[in-house]
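User: C-alpha cells for this one?
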Amino acid sequence: MDWDNLRYFLEVARCQRISVAAQRLGVQHSTVARRIQALEQELGLRLFHKSTVSGYSLTSEGLNLQQRMEPVENRLLAARDAITGKARPLTGKLRLGCTEAFGSYVLTPLLSIFQTQYPELTLELLPVPRPISLSRRDADLAIALERPQRGPYWCTRLADYSLRLYAHQDYLNSHPPIENVQDLSRHRFIAYVDDLVFSDSLRYLEEIVRSAAVRFRSTSVIAQYQATLQGQGIAVLPCFLAKTDPRLRCVLPDQVELRRRFWMFCHEEQRQNPSLTRLWHFLKQSVEERQDLLDGA
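Assistant:
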C-alpha cells in the first residue's frame, strides 16, 4: 500500500472532514479526495460513509484499517525523532480528562512513566464520572466512551475493553448459587443512578437481566466497586478494575461479557502542541501494549 495514501486516510479518519484534513496536510481538497479514492480502489474496500451532514465516518473496514495503521504511524514518528534528534525536553502544562476508573487505575501509572521521561512537564488528570467538554476548555485532551459527533477535533479509537459481573465471595456464600443468567433474577445488584447516567453505554444491566433488583446506586464506578467489596450485591465492573482484586469473584465468566470502547480526542488547534502530540502517541502505544489488562485476560 502507498504510505502517502494511508497518511491521508488517517487524517480524514481523525477529523471526519476532507476540507479540514486538507488544511492540516497543507494540500488541496481535491488531493485528499483523490488519495482516499485511490486507496479504496487499491484495497477494493469502502472505507468511509460519506454524508454532507456528518462528514466522512469510518465503515467497519475503515475502522479496522485505522486500528492497524496507527501503531505503524506511531512507530514511524518515534523512529523519526530518534534518528533526527528532534525529540526535545517538553515543558508547560497539560490537562487530561477521562472516565473515572480508567483514569485512576490505568492512566495514572502510565502518566507516571511519561513524566519520568519529561520531568519538566506538568500533568493534570481529571478522572470524573461525567463528560469532559473541550469546547469549554475543561481539558486539553479527553478520553471518553463516545466519539464526538461534531466539532473541530482530532480523534482516534484508543482501545476496547471488557466488563463482567463481579461479587465478593462473602455475598456469593450467603446467597443462592448462580449457574446461568436466569439465576441472576434472585440476586441484588449495584448500578448507576438511572436519571444521572451520562452515557447510554453505561446502562449495563439492561443487557444482562431484566428488572434487576438494584439495592445500591451511585454515579461513581469507584463507589460501586467499593460497595461490591462490602458484599452489597453484584456489579458490572471493568475487568481492568475488578479482575486484579483477589477479594472479588467473576460471576458467569463464560456467559456474560460486555464490550465498550474508549475514544481519545483533542481540539484540532492542539495538534500543533508538541507536548500534547508526544503524550498522544505515548498513550496510543502504551494502552495498546496493555490490551490484555483491558480484556481481563
